[in-house]
Amino acid sequence: MISEFIPAILLGIVLSFTIGPVFFTILEISVSKGFKAAVFFNIGVVFSEVVFFAVAYASTSNLLNSIQENPSWKILGGVLLAFYAGITLLGMYQNKEKKEQQNLFKSPPPSPNLIKNLIKGFGLNIINFAVLVFWILIVANYAPGFQDSQYKMIVFFLVIVGTYFTIDLGKIYLAQQLKTSLTDSVITKIKLIVNAIILIIGLVLIFEGFFE
Asked: Over the range 168-194, which residues count as b (16 or more CB within 10 Å of their CB) and which as e?
């Protein structure tokens, strides 16, 4: 029985190291806002994975065909990612002015809003339709083998997410170890690079959607 769930562990590893907006953002938040903020961001990501799994489990084949055949899904995902990156970059510019005022009056920096980071994690992952496709393919490939017991597919999902979350905790911890050697200037550059990557991913999706 345990052997049935070994692929779930491997898929959790793949999901954790898949290069995308969440991968870069979770490292950036860990460095710039701390361990708790990054963990709550990751919890938000996991909540979105639950939503994706539920959607995939309820409508596997029809939804997959719709996403593959209709480029509008890709354009929408690209627009949302580009919008997210644009808003974040604008917020960084505004926060730069606030930081200058804080340094002038020597006021302490505000503590990170954990619930806000949770919502941010949920929102950033839920607009990435590639993750939805990932779960649709998982359900389509493995659900037929668990027809004798529906709970096995749920356990399979939990093993994937559990593996993903555990590895991400390790990534957050390692990023924290680097934090002590990073200056505010370097952290700001990391945030700029991360959001520039997200913006580029969004623009590429829009381009691909228009020319498919």
From this structure: beebbeebeeeeeeeeeeeebebbeeb
Structure tokens at 104: 């002038």
Q: To 10 degrees, the CA torsion angle through 201, 29, 113, 40?
A: 90
Q: What is the pLDDT of residues 23-63, one digit of tens each?
A: 878 888 888 888 899 999 999 999 999 998 988 887 765 66
48 CB burial (10 A radius; 0-12, 13-18, 19+): buried
Mind listing the pLDDT tens digit for each residue in 126-183?
888 778 878 887 887 777 777 667 688 889 999 999 999 999 999 888 888 877 776 6
Distance (Å, whole) CA 124 – CA 42: 11
Is 110 in contact with 95 (CB distance < 8 Å)? no
pTM as predicted: 0.73
| Alpha-carbon span 195 to 47, nearest angstrom | 22
Contact 39, 114 (CB under 8 A): no
Question: 130: which 2 tokens?
Answer: 């590639």
Read out DSSP for 122-186? HHHHHT-HHHHHHHHHHHHHHGGGGTT-HHHHHHHHHHHHHHHHHHHHHHHHHHHHHHTT--HHH
**Sign (positive or negative) of CA dihedral 202, 208, 211, 212:** negative
CA distance 176 to 171: 9
